[in-house]
Amino acid sequence: MGETAFDGDAAEELGRILRYWGGNLKHYALQPGDGSEIYDSAYRRVGQWAVVQEQATA
């Protein structure tokens, strides 16, 4: 997202998205496989998050 996104309020919109999803995490067990799409204030899909299982390294 560039600085001009959301009529120049990109940082404010990103803060809103992060606050919303940060508060919403209590509804998830945060186990591998949990996740959700992320939407902005205009209900446009702007990303997703997911909990993945750590892969063993050799």
Outline the structure in words.
The structure is a single chain. This protein is of the alpha+beta class and 58 residues long. The protein has one helix spanning 10-24, and strands at residues 35-39, 45-50. It is built from 1 helix and 2 strands. Strands 1-2 form a two-stranded antiparallel ribbon.
Strand proportion, as a percent range, falls in 15-25%
Q: Outline, from the CA principal axes? A: elongated
The main sheet comes to:
2 strands, antiparallel
Helix content: 25-40%
Assembly level? single chain
Any descriptors?
58 residues; alpha+beta; two-stranded antiparallel ribbon; 1 helix; 2 strands; elongated
Compact overview of the structure:
Helix content is 26%, strand content 19%.
Please give the structural blueprint.
Layout: H1 10-24, E1 35-39, E2 45-50
Antiparallel strand pairs: 1-2
